[in-house]
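Ticket #4471: structure export looks truncated?
Reporter: QA, pipeline team
Priority: medium

Steps to reproduce: submit the single chain below to the structure queue and open the exported record.
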Amino acid sequence: MKLQALAMGCSAFVAGFAHAGAQQYEPLAASVRAALHAAVSDRASPEPLFASAEEKADWLAQMSARLAKFMPNERERIEFLKTVRYEATRAGLDTQLVLGLIQVESGFKKYAVSAAGARGYMQVMPFWVKLIGNRDDNLFHLRANLRYGCTILRHYLDIENGDLYRALGRYNGSLGRTEYPNAVRAAWEKRWAYTSRLTPITAQARP
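Actual output as written to the record:
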């Protein structure tokens, strides 16, 4: 499916991504809407948690090297990775899974827009802002996009009782088809799987 990658300002270009889709609108119970609204409330993200400073440095170094193909600017990469780590952990998701999903959904294009209107890194549909957010929320904003995306994926996982394939299908609007879940799984395992390079002693949290 073709995506338009909108550069900040007025320039634009078109890039192709095979699996970008769109979440489908489904009526939500008031209690669910309230819980999701609380989950996407836009508070500043603190530093993500790691067992130690050494583990943080190791993870960021490995992920930054892999992300350089998509984001040449190192400062941008580090900010992005810290935010992904924080928002994924906050939602109870595997950070590496979220990186795989972003690769498949938008190719790490901040201003990507799908043919269906899904926006940003995690290709969030605008109806979610009206449904669970605040009207001023900007889905092209790094933290807002990742918070919505992670919250929505967590919601679908809860609906599907932890069935990742079905949750990913809901996220992409392709429930019942295997292409998208398989693509995310492949990206997750082949590019983003993390193996610590630290010794067990080095990796331990310091008191």
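Status: closed, not a bug. The export was complete when the record was re-opened. Leaving a note from the reviewer for reference: DSSP finds nine helices and three strands in the chain.
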